[in-house]
Amino acid sequence: MLPLLLSTLLSGCASTMANGQDPSPSPDRDSSSLSLEDYRELCRIPAEEELVEEIRQALEETSCSAVLWVDGLFGDRTEVAEARRTSGVVEGSALYSEFDGIDPGGRLRLHYDLPNLERRANVFLGRGNEREAVEDREEQFSLRSSLPPAESPERWITGLALTPPGRWEGNVHLRVGVRPSTSPTAFVQGRLRQRISTGDWAEWRFRQTVFWESDEGAGVTVSGRYQRLLDPILLLHANATGTLSEASEGLRWRMEPSVYRRFSGGRVAGLRTFLRGETSADVPLREYGIRGVYRRPLLSPSLIVELVAGYSWPRQEIARPRERSVNLGVQLELSFGTRPYTRE
């Protein structure tokens, strides 16, 4: 379903801009004469028999053809090998809480460089919570709130990310994006990242993001992360995020102390605690809780299943007391592409 949805979206975008020609594909031809179907033929991968690998193959072929088509808008080179250097992840999940019932979710994230722009730019495509993506404060599945989402539904977002050359390369990113719909909205986002090592076993990471969105206005998100290896298989992790914007009531904040243990076979178990709130809201502390997390490969190293169980104490209205809520969840995460997908 997800590969078909991605393919349909990309085909629809292409049909509005392509010239409709359909000659026989050739890697040596001028890219301006190729159609999206030609690019798909160039990106064809030998068929796989296993279901997981078949899905990965469909996603990689679709993303590769999209790279060639978009990159052809900026130059005449048709570099199939470069176009295959995509990275992406598809997630499908369901989280149950006593407070709000079952909350299904699905996300897709895809990044790919544009060879004709000397890899200084990459296209991103995703589906998820629009507000979190624009504000650069997306939550991982194991920390999803028990409170019903009140800010924005899951939507498609696409755009262009630019990396400047020189001393800031890899640390400064500018993203210009749009939410395609009957009433599209645009956003601009600038990121500054810093990493400070405090020894062989620990480091701090900081990120400052300034954003503007055509519907909700401007704002800034600041986050800090501390990671320390207590021994080769035990990791201490702590993260804090705060967002101040024209659309928020004061500072929207989140804190996440966690500890993880690694086992053989790619298995990971962890214990995560969290607090979240908004300083000027009627209920400044919206929710706190604790969750156990277990991740392991399923059928293939590229397919990960994540199980979540725990308690949280949400409060949505000042007139109602805080309630205890059991949390249970499962997520399937499929990575694809020739490069590992990174969330930063």
Task: Describe what you observe in this structure.
With 344 residues, the protein is α+β, with helices and mostly antiparallel strands. The chain has 2 domains: 1-83, no CATH class; 85-337, monomeric porin ompg (Porin). Helices cover 16% and strands 49% of the residues. It has 5 helices and 14 strands. A 14-stranded antiparallel beta barrel has the order 1-2-3-4-5-6-7-8-9-10-11-12-13-14. α2 packs across α3 (51-71). The longest helix has 21 residues, at 51-71. The radius of gyration is 21 Å and the shape is globular. Mean pLDDT is 78; it is low at 1-32.
Helix and strand topology:
Layout: H1 2-17, H2 36-42, H3 51-71, H4 80-83, E1 86-97, E2 101-113, E3 121-129, H5 130-135, E4 154-162, E5 172-179, E6 185-197, E7 202-213, E8 217-231, E9 234-245, E10 252-262, E11 268-278, E12 285-298, E13 300-314, E14 325-337
Helix pairs in contact: 1-3, 2-3
Rg measurement, Å: 21 Å
Biggest sheet character: 14 strands, antiparallel, barrel
What number is the mean pLDDT?
78
Detail the poorly predicted runs: 1-32
Number of domains: 2
- Number-wise, the strands total 14
Report, as a whole number of angstroms, the end-to-end distance. 26 Å
Shape: globular
SS content category:
alpha+beta
Kindly report the oligomeric state of this protein: single chain
